[in-house]
Amino acid sequence: MHCPFCRHADSRVVDSRTSDDGLSIRRRRQCPQCNRRFTTIETASLSVVKRSGATEPFSREKIVNGVRKACQGRPVSDDDLAVLAQRVEENLRASGSAELDAYEIGLAILGPLRDLDEVAYLRFASVYQAFSSLEDFEAAITVLRAENEAARAAAEAGDATGQPADA
């Protein structure tokens, strides 16, 4: 690590701490030449392996852009999309893998997108999972309805007992 003050090619780590989100490490360093201190933030890089075999760095912006198309005309803000991209990245980093298939990233998007907006979820899933017929849409809608009814029944059961449903 080059010193940002004197450009000396070496530095000594004085202190290391994990950031609040746990995704990066903050290191306090000292230059042996000028004795000045500086801070670095280190994160593990994620690489995406495309279908063609090419590898490129992970980009939240690509997630936002891809999901934005599915959310067109829906009540979803740019902040909602940024939070979704952050959730997806956190889930992918939690997997512990440094290289991810583009397909895995698409699968990781589906859950948070379903929580955000079901219509956008169906749009994204129809392209991503290559729906080829009306039956594919009907099956996806049936699954969504069943999950919504189960969640509603669990919430009502929690209301009836006076306890939260997941207590």
UniProtKB/TrEMBL annotation:
Segments forming unnamed zinc fingers: 3-34
Keyword annotations of the record: ATP-binding, DNA-binding, Metal-binding, Nucleotide-binding, Repressor, Transcription, Transcription regulation, Zinc, Zinc-finger
Start and end residues of each ATP-cone domain: 46-136
Cofactor binding annotation: Binds 1 zinc ion.
InterPro entries according to UniProt: ATP-cone_dom, NrdR-like_N, RNR_NrdR-like
Cofactor names: Zn(2+)
Role: Negatively regulates transcription of bacterial ribonucleotide reductase nrd genes and operons by binding to NrdR-boxes.
Record-linked PANTHER family: TRANSCRIPTIONAL REPRESSOR NRDR
Family of this protein: Belongs to the NrdR family.
Protein name: Transcriptional repressor NrdR
Origin species: Cellulomonas triticagri
